Amino acid sequence: MKHAYIWGGILTIAFFSVVGDVLLARAMKQVGDVHALWRSAGLWTVVSRVASNPNIFMGVAAMTVAFFTLLFALSWGDLSLVAPAAASLTFIGNAFAAKIFLHEKVDRRRWIAAVLVAAGVALLAG
Amino acid sequence: MTFRKYLVLAGVTVFGAAGDSVLSHGMKQVGNISIHDLPSLIFAVMNPYVAIGILLLLTFIVLNMTALSWADLTYVLPATSMGYVLLALSARFILHEQVSLTRWLGIVLISGGVGFIAGSPALTSHLHGEEKSPLLAAKGAARNGAPAPAHGTHAEEVVSSVVEP
């Protein structure tokens, strides 16, 4: 039963981390290239575009849920399992979510990069 | 990719890794804190390592958001994962900790993953691999009297607020 709690926690952390990352990425694409916008319209335009984008706040909220779930999961399972498993699943989940929701071209090269990094993080943090 | 953009990605990597390790060092000095004991939380933030760690992580967030404004999520995440490698290498060469064979293998895999996306186009979602800012693309289109790019709903928004008076 404890095992189910731990893996439920890990999946929840990965899910909300992916949701947070995707919302933040979508928000920043809607804001536009920050360098170009700053040069042409000024810092205030950049700040107001970021602050008025609802996806930013929803992304931060999702990341907050992921953070508190991590705290709970750590009370059920070891850091050496929970942190690397959640980080690895987040990398793989982000590749799927970016392809579906952000319409990124996740080609073979990016899939290999995501899998290698996910495996590397699992080994490094485990 | 311009030099400035590579600098931003390097900044995301370094500030993320530095922020995590400085904050972790500070929290070890502070000791356990409880949600029911708010003064202990304020005391924790007053620790210089905790305060510097928070500042470093805030810089990391700003740089990460900047990178996401001109690069794909599936490009930024692997590109900035070298932070894990930096932490392991600093543990080995600065803190003189033992790094196991498994961890060295992890470093090799992450470095390999970063190598796979290095040199590939940073942005594919809006411009189909063309390395061009949406703002500049829209500006160019407006100047030439051509319609805005097919995926340029955002670019149209930007051009209406920036190019037109």
Total helices of chain B: the number is: 8
Radius of gyration of chain B: 21 Å
For the record, the count of structural domains of chain B works out to: 2
Oligomer: heterodimer
Q: Termini distance of chain A?
A: 22 Å
Q: Approximately how much beta-strand content do the residues of chain B carry?
A: under 5%
Strand-residue proportion of chain A: under 5%
How many beta strands in the DSSP annotation of chain B? 0
How many strands, what sense, and barrel or not for the largest sheet of chain B? Answer: none
- Give the helices and strands of chain B as they follow along the chain: HHHHHHHH
Per DSSP E runs of 2 or more residues, the count of β-strands of chain A stands at: 0
In helices, the fraction of residues of chain A equals over 70%
Going by helix content, strand content and strand pairing, the class of chain B is mainly alpha
The unreliable regions of chain A are none
Query: Biggest β-sheet of chain A: count, sense, barrel?
Result: none
| Radius of gyration of CA atoms of chain A, rounded to a whole number | 17 Å
Mean pLDDT of chain B: 75
Which range best describes the helical content of chain B: under 10%, 10-25%, 25-40%, 40-55%, 55-70% or over 70%?
over 70%
Explain how this protein is built.
- The complex is a heterodimer of chains A (126) and B (165).
- Chain A is mainly α.
- Chain A has one domain.
- Chain A contains 6 helices and no strands.
- The radius of gyration of chain A is 17 Å and the shape is globular.
- The mean pLDDT of chain A is 90.
- Chain B has 165 residues and is mostly helical.
- Chain B folds into 2 domains: 3-122, no CATH class; 126-165, no CATH class.
- Helices cover 71% and strands 0% of the residues of chain B.
- In chain B, helix 1 packs antiparallel against helix 3 (48-70), helix 5 (82-93) packs antiparallel against helix 6 (101-117) and helix 7 (134-144) crosses helix 8.
- In chain B, 37% of the residues are buried.
- Chains A and B meet through helix 1, helix 2, helix 5 and helix 6 of A and helix 3, helix 4, helix 5, helix 6 and helix 7 of B.
